[in-house]
Amino acid sequence: MFRYDTAFKWICLVCAGVVGVLMLGFFIQLFISSFSAWREFGLSFLWSRDWNPVTDKYGALPSIVGTLSTTVISLVIALPLAFSAALYLVDARPLIGEILSHAIDLLAAIPSVIYGMWGLFVLAPLMQKYVQPFLADTLGLGRFSFIGTEFNGFGILTAGLILSIMILPYICAIMRDVFRMTPPMLRESAYGVGCTKWETARDIVLRYGIRGILGGVFIGLGRALGETMAVLFVIGNIMEMPSSIFSGSATIASTLANHFAEADGLQRSALFALGLVLLLMSFGIQVLAQYYLHATGARRGETR
Amino acid sequence: MMRRRPLTWRKLSNQFVKIFSTAAVLLAVGAMLWILYTVACYGFRSMSLSFFTTPTMPYGGPVRGGIANAFLGSVMITFGAAVIAVPPALCAGIFLAEYKDWKTVSNVLRFSANVMMGIPSVLVGLFAYIILVVPTGNFSGFSASVALAIIMFPVIMRTTEDMLGMVPDALRESALALGMTRTRATVCIVCLSARKGLLTGILLALSRVSGETAPLLFTALFSDGWPKNYFTGPIANMPVLITEYSTNSPFEVMHQAGWGAALVVTVLVLVINMSTRIIFREKKI
Residues 93 to 132 of B: which have CB under 8 A from any A CB? Predict the structure, then answer.
């Protein structure tokens, strides 16, 4: 009898240990596979601008810049939307709130390749025809060099837009949880001294749940960093330093998916090195997300 | 000294935020409906019986290709992933929830599981490529299953833990008081009473993983023809079919087939997802 129990416990421990082993395995395997690239280029791989298979020179800077700029754009768009949507959903009437919450959660369930297709066939033409000319010419923003006047519908802005739709449900779900966790007493007191709803949200709920909200932001950030398919379809996949937010670019994830099949030798190793960079970035972000979410106990977006 | 704010200004900004947050909800829901509507509109045109019964064909052949082999391949890959991931993930969840005496180990593993959930799927694809495709020398459906299993594992592990955590301790204690062994109490009483929750977790993980594309680009790849060699060769699957047809093909017919496949995948994923939520709703926190 006794041995039976011990055996079961050990089986469970080994199974749980798999996740730790996998975690380590990711780092070790990617490092081993990218070793020749690190030996060839050293740390300057991180800030070298070339990506040239002909001369066998590779650098990560263009794709790192692409990754960061799409991520920043998507966060800038998604964050206020998710925050105010969560505000609405928490205060809405129960039935309406529940239905709308489920509807927004469904956004997270749609496979990313569908977003990519939608972006390619619907959003990119719209961007080219209406949005980008409007931004560049009608509003006259084109004179700023980071926006630019040349556009074809693809590029960083389009990718950032799609990413913002994709990460919105994750951030919104966590924010909803955080808002619900504010003790009713605090909110009631705020209303009691005459605060409007917005003032309560800004001065009480936001401050009370700031750690959870930061955790949600980092979860969204992690999603946006590593998203592959949706970005691959609309970013244009150009391995150059982007000159403006309308220009085509590449993210680390899209570079991996796009170049891996025809790469070999040093280029493949460089791709693995890019993968390692992405792994380190998302690992750091996940650690931060865990740190902030740990205290609040909000459920993570993924398990929904 | 607090800054004085005029009442009209406060009310106005409150109104503005109210309108903005309503607009945000509408925008999010609208985006969802728009995407679904687009997929339904375009995809519906290629729906026909032969679309589901003929395998994919290269462009320009005498017979117009369908998606039958890709569908079958996707089912095989996803099913394989479930077979690989579910039993150990359940055990792992049981360890986190039931054996509280090894706090440090549990905490470290819980942390790694949380981090693993956020690791981009494209890296999981790379990892599966390194550990399976490189040593065996060929792309295979099996390696794709392993990649998807790696994605599913932490998700199921954490939901299992959450669901078992909701089982009241009184139930455990009564089972043990009846003289059951720890194993028996865990498997027959605790897991059984949380079965709905466990099933929810598994199904949601499956629905999430069945639309996953990036790992399959590195592992399953694609091939026209029926998926005969699951262990030794590249096999057809829906997500890669959608990607290939819509980005790498200039032909309208292929785009059309891609939309059809997209509709099938979306409907399957959403049906699994929604029905799981509705049927097992009361078990969710």
Answer: 94-96, 98-99, 102, 105-106, 108-109, 111-123, 126-127, 130-131
